[in-house]
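Side project, low priority. Logging it here so it doesn't get lost.
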Amino acid sequence: MRTSSSLTSMKALPGFASLFKPRSARVFSPAASWLLVMPLLAVFAIGFLYPLAKLVDLSFSEGITATYGRLLDDPLYADVLLTTAAVALSVTMAAILLGYPVAYAMARARKRTAFIVAACVFVPLWTSVLIRSYAWIVLLQRNGIVNTLLIATGLTDQPIKMLYTQGAVTLAMTHVLLPFVILPIFSVLRTLPDDYIRAARNLGAGPARAFFLVTLPLSLPGVFAGATICFVLALGFYITPALVGGPGSMLMPTLIGQQTTVLVDWPFAAALSTVLLIMTLLVVILFRKTLSVQKGFGSVH
């Protein structure tokens, strides 16, 4: 009793009761908030902005004509850039077409089935990209499992060249980047109430019509997020194209690696990296604009 009465009297003191109030971010002044954020901003500036600025500065170190002018004079580099964008777009489209049904199954299946599907999605993420890329070499080589099965079933008389092609690069990159498309779509689908589908069905819509008119439009933010992540990662992918594509598959990351390690032309490699960075930023802005337009159409309807 004495302890409780003493606590009551202490709480009654001026300023002491404020210690028992829940604190939130609004309690801190702007100066204190900036002071708390400064370590994160310092790490961001030192670890990202400064190296990026040095990269751009290095691309201009020998003059614009010696680096960026070289990109315009030789059509090879424009072809490599277009090939990189085409491969990234193909990988993104394939990942969406393959990943959306998996994400839909994870969101709509029962707990045990959803757990099994989620395990199949997450387990590859625990494996190194190098190992997953090398696995495709084992599958697609001339004496690999795929050619062995094709010959054994009589579909072909001799091994088919599947390795060291753009198709092999697209297939392997789609397999590696597929979880990065599934997870954003799944995170949106699982938040959609089932009442929307029931309402559409009660109004006379069939399962397919309810999906295309209700579920698919509402899940587009997840589709755009997954497509953005997949496309940006595909633009800068290096290990899989280098292993599965071989010397015949020349993409921008492979070209940049060649300029830095083989030719030791750092200014030109910096120019290539800057062009690839600008292209990545334009893609992100385009996806953001597309998503905002889609939301605007959704609000109108």
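Brief comment: The chain has one domain: 62-300.
Revisit when time allows.
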